Amino acid sequence: MHDFKFKNGRLYCEGVALEQLARECGTPLYVYSQHTITAHFQKLDRALAGLPDRLVCFAMKANSNAAILRLLANLGGGFDIVSAGELFRVVQAGGDSRRCVFAGVGKTDEEIRYALAQGIYCFNVESAPEIERINRLAREVNERAPIAIRVNPNVEAHTHAKITTGTYENKFGIAIEDVEAVYAHAATLPGIHIRGVQMHIGSQITSVGPFVKAVKKVLPLVKKLRQLYAIEFFSIGGGIGICYDPALESATPEWWSRTPKARAWLTPQRYAASLVPLLAPLGLRVLIEPGRFIVGNAGALVTRVQYVKSTPEKTFVIVDAGMNDLIRPAFYDSYHQIVPLRQTRGTLVADVVGPICESGDYFAKGRKLAAVKEGDGVALLSAGAYGMAMASNYNSRPLAAEVLVNGNRYAVVRERQAVEDLNRGEKVAGWLKR
Ligand SMILES: Cc1ncc(COP(=O)(O)O)c(C=O)c1O
Asked: Which end of the chain is more exposed for a tag (fewer CB within 10 A), N or C?
């Protein structure tokens, strides 16, 4: 579900025409729907009502714009963070550091010190040496750092290899067989307070099967840890997938045929119906860490066609957004619907590409599109997660602007970067000066 819809042949985000936004704010432009974000957060939260003590921690790696963080903080959300920079952004946006959980395999001394000073809810620890380091740094400031161990349950998430995180092939967490011994050691450390247990098996998971399998595998451990250390929470991580291609919503991916019970597309209701009965009897606080589900379908990347050119082999629609603005197709071969801002008659089949000097700089290949021409605006839908958050200055292209729409209003929530910002901080070595 999202709020990007055609009305009288023009594409709107809620009550604002994207053509108007492209004209007034320029392109490439990220546009987010406040209503979609709010609805997704609330749908998920309400679906989990059977877990009275729950906290939805938005995985802000998906989208770290300050306005979106503030919106989710206002809705009562916490945050799943993976760096000091993300924690800084939460604090700046008015979020509550006591609702932050800090994951990541490479936390530095500086990051741990900063998180201790900000009083985060929990460090989600990813290795035995990390516990030693947190213990040492917490003792330096006479504190006991709250920790949970990220359990690697060695469960296949059936998603893209680059976003699978819960098998022993991956760098994340501590192997489920080793976890009890690591907790036992952690319990002896004076700078450590054992607060919970965590897992996260991957991203863009489109059926409930892998979640159920992982939760069932970790549950006996959680029960034991509750008895031993009086832990207060179990975080089951994020990973709820979204529909990028409406044509696929009713289709059955090939691997599903091997898991017939998990055939139905994932919705908050299905997710909750399968997981709440497993989790509620624990009587623990339950955390979830959704990123993509909250913001993915709530954002579009608006871009303008610069040229349409043909080679003897194919037609290219060249737009003013590039892989530096949205890397998902190049990086994960992912699909984004591409729709014109103004509906037109006729179609064409083309590769939709950006201006970057890489053949991997494409948004679609051999795609049947509305017959767009030079100067037309198009929107790449479902770009709200891992879009702007993964943008770069590659080819010295300034970062796009971002806009948040709320009904008939909109606000620029990130100014377009100026070319003058591109070499900020760079210096020419003294010996090169003439
Ligand atoms: C620890 C952790 N939690 C949550 C998420 C969010 O995943 P998603 O955006 O698929 O919900 C991630 C994503 O990589 C993660 O690493």
From this structure: C
The answer to whether 13 is a known catalytic residue is: no
Cα end-to-end distance, the chain, whole Å? 60
CA distance 22 to 14: 15
**pLDDT tens, position by position, 319-335:** 999 999 999 999 999 99
**In the predicted structure, residue 235 carries a pLDDT above the cut 80:** yes
Q: For residue 258, is it left (φ>0), alpha (ψ between -120 and 50) or beta?
A: alpha
**Considering its fold, how many domains does the chain have in total?**
2
Find the 128 Cα to ligand 1 centroid distance in Å.
Answer: 21
Residues 162 and 234 occupy one common structural domain = yes
Atom 16 (ligand 1): residue with closest C-alpha?
Answer: 200
- Give residue 91 CA to ligand 1 midpoint distance, Å: 20
- Residue 199, pLDDT above cutoff 50: yes
Reply yes or no on whether the pLDDT at 259 is more than 80. no
Residue 336 covered by a domain: yes
pLDDT in tens, 78-116: 999 999 999 999 999 999 999 999 999 999 999 999 999
Q: Is the dihedral of CA 35, 40, 45, 49 positive or negative?
A: positive
Whether residue 181 is predicted with pLDDT greater than 50 in this model: the reply is yes
**How many residues does this entry show for the chain?**
434
Whether pLDDT at 234 is above 50:
yes
Is residue 158 domain-shared with residue 252, that is, in the same domain? yes
Residue 206 has what DSSP assignment?
A: -
Last residue of a domain, one of 255, 288, 321: 288
Domain ranges, residue 207: 104-288
- Name every protein residue with a CB atom under 6 angstroms from any ligand 1 atom: 59, 61-62, 80, 103, 200, 203-204, 237-240, 289-293, 385
Contact 11, 4 (CB under 8 A): yes
**Distance (Å, whole) CA 325 – CA 335:** 15
SS3 of residue 290 by DSSP: coil
Angstrom distance (rounded) from CA 250 to CA 350: 26
Asked whether residue 377 is domain-assigned, the answer is yes
- Mean pLDDT of all residues in 233-241: 97
Last residue of a domain, one of 264, 288, 312: 288
E strand or H helix at 54, and its extent? Answer: strand 54-59
